[in-house]
Inverse folding.
């Protein structure tokens, strides 16, 4: 299975920041007015100019068609995100998007589970918000963070009626350990379940291993990017090709891939 | 102002701005961001006879005013290129330059020969920065004899306009330039990326999966200008200049150093429509420098050309 989902047509857009919020230490969420980006599919991303040589890819945490806004939630890890974090309400951003293939909507006949770690959590909120009204059951959500203070968006998922399970590395909230424990437990109970995961690459590798044999497991990957549109071949990950391993592009073949497509070393 | 550029073997560009190989994919990728038909030409990503896998990621790393890349020439091979990409490019109306690569002289020849069968290829750009696996892996572009051999071999099988792309990672680019001119090159494009390295201190190892990488962007512009300036004095064939071009003023610098046209690469990642902006700005920038055509600008800064007389003492800027 490969991800055939495509999103809205990408454009160069200027979007004004209409709201700014710091949900956790070192994390910022910006709401941007842009009807073009608001039409994105959850799992797609926007390529943001931040003054360096390259744009920075960030996924959407919220997509509101009627308000014409899209939000991004990011962690400050370097110069680009530090610059972006300094942006205040009213500032206009130079953006390219929506880009990439997003998540395909779950099959309503089967249960679904969202698995997010760290700044992998935000795109799953966009997915949960978009899909819950159309599905029979709200999702099961497994969230992971280093510590309680860094856990993102838990209340937002609960407000959608999701059953939320929390894991932290240090045990300061929820179960001590990683998201893989609760996920394996859920999969054992729901053999036809559909899984949507986003987080650090080692976590996604663990999700892929825990769900081996399952065919509806979708992973949203990160990789260092250049162009963001498939032209430079910078953003590749190792995947199964017809004649052995091939490199595929996160920006245009992904960022959402079927777990069975990928090879984790 | 007429921006047309007339190059050898009937290659005519509507303007001197060309998308640089490897930064504009195989054609369709930037279609929703750039009016491809408005560009002077597009040089596609390097194409080999068979698919090449490329290097392990990470493949790009930002450096001060530069970009270090180790893509490793990943491409799906000339067959897929001809079926999947070429028809699209042909329809855009821009000139199509196919950047060709190989591991042996015969591989270069095979790609060139395969392209003879296709409509819509306007020129070849021979990328001689590939390692020659039969000769110990040093790149063809590093050694005048190797460069001569590969260019002569491609010349034997093609009548297309052919430019040869120089590597800056040599002691005397002029010697390589003279070798490829003697082997039958119609034009020279310069420069390819400058070899470099970055360290990822968190992982305590070289940052790129391919260990070393090629530096591009504004950081390399002075290196590129120096090489264009030297090569322009060493050969009689036209030069297509590149390396760190971000603006119309940068283009004028390359023209004055002796280039007839330019390629624009890294800046496209950040600003996809920058090439169009440059095309639109170029006439006004030239006029602001009291220049009325491209042709009178080319080579103005070369030795022996008459510089502008010094302003008289009572003139105000
Ligand atoms: C499709 C996609 C979606 C993403 N979504 C989010 C998100 O919703 N929230 C969030 O906080 N982060 C997200 N990231 C990661 C984010 O792009 C990086 O944290 C950011 O680019 C770092 O930039 P910097 O200048 O602050 O850091 P620096 O380390 O100074 O960046 C230097 C270079 O490395 C790249 N880079 C650094 N870390 C990463 C990384 N983990 N992944 C990809 N490129 C990286 C940068 O883009 C830049 O080119 C996403 C990445 C991708 C590929
Ligand atoms: C990501 C990337 C990929 C490249 N791939 C190729 C290639 O396949 N063949 C080639 O001849 N040059 C390649 N180049 C070199 C560029 O064509 C150009 O020579 C160089 O980047 C300098 O121009 P710039 O500073 O405007 O980018 C590549 C450059 C970059 C940044
Ligand atoms: S970032 Fe250029 S191909 Fe993906």
């Amino acid at each position: 299975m490969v991800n055939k989902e495509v999103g809205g047509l990408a454009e160069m857009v200027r979007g004004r920041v209409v709201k700014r919020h710091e949900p956790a230490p070192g994390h910022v969420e910006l709401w941007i007015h842009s009807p073009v980006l608001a039409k994105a599919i959850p799992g797609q991303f926007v390529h943001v100019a931040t003054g360096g040589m390259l744009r920075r890819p960030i996924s959407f945490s919220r997509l509101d068609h009627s308000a014409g806004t899209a939000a991004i939630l990011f962690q400050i890890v370097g110069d680009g995100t530090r610059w972006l974090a300094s942006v205040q309400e009213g500032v206009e951003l130079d953006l390219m998007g929506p880009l990439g293939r997003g998540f395909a909507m779950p099959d309503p006949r089967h249960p679904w589970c969202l698995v997010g770690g760290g700044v992998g959590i935000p795109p799953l909120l966009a997915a949960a918000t978009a899909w819950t009204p159309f599905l029979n059951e709200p999702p099961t959500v497994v969230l992971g963070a280093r510590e309680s203070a860094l856990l993102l968006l838990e209340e937002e998922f609960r407000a959608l009626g999701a059953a939320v399970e929390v894991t932290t590395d240090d045990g300061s909230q929820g179960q001590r350990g990683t998201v893989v424990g609760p996920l394996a437990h859920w999969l054992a109970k729901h053999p036809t379940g559909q899984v949507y995961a986003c987080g650090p690459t080692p976590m996604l590798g663990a999700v892929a291993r825990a769900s081996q044999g399952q065919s509806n497991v979708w992973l949203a990957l990160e990789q260092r990017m250049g162009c963001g549109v498939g032209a430079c071949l910078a953003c590749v990950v190792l995947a199964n090709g017809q004649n052995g391993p091939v490199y595929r592009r996160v920006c245009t073949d992904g960022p959402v891939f079927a777990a069975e497509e990928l090879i984790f070393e | 102002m007429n921006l047309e550029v007339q190059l050898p073997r009937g290659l005519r560009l509507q303007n001197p701005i060309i998308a640089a190989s490897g930064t504009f994919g195989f054609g369709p990728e930037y279609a929703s961001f750039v009016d491809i038909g408005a560009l002077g030409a597009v040089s596609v990503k390097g194409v080999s006879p068979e698919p090449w896998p490329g290097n392990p990621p990470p493949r790009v790393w930002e450096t001060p005013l530069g970009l270090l890349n180790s893509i490793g020439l990943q491409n799906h091979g000339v067959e897929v290129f001809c079926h999947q990409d070429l028809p699209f490019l042909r329809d855009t109306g821009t000139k199509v330059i196919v950047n060709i690569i190989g591991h042996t002289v015969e591989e270069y020849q095979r790609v060139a020969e395969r392209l003879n069968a296709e409509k819509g290829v306007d020129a070849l750009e021979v990328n001689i920065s590939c390692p020659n696996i039969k000769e110990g892996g040093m790149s063809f572009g590093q050694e005048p004899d190797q460069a001569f051999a590969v260019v002569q071999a491609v010349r034997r099988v093609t009548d297309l306009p052919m430019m040869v792309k120089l590597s800056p990672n040599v002691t005397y680019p002029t010697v390589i330039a003279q070798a490829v001119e003697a082997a039958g090159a119609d034009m020279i494009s310069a420069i390819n990326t400058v070899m470099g390295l970055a360290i990822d201190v968190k992982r305590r190892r070289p940052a790129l999966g391919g260990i070393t990488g090629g530096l591009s962007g504004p950081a390399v512009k002075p290196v590129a200008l120096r090489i264009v300036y030297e090569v322009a004095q060493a050969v009689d064939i036209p030069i297509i200049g590149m390396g760190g071009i971000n603006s119309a003023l940068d283009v004028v610098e390359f023209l004055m150093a002796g280039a007839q046209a330019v390629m624009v690469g890294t800046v496209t990642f950040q600003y996809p429509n920058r090439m169009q902006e440059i095309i639109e700005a170029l006439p006004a920038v030239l006029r602001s420098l009291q220049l009325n055509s491209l042709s009178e600008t080319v080579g103005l800064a070369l030795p022996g050309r008459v510089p502008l007389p010094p302003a008289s003492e009572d003139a105000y800027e």
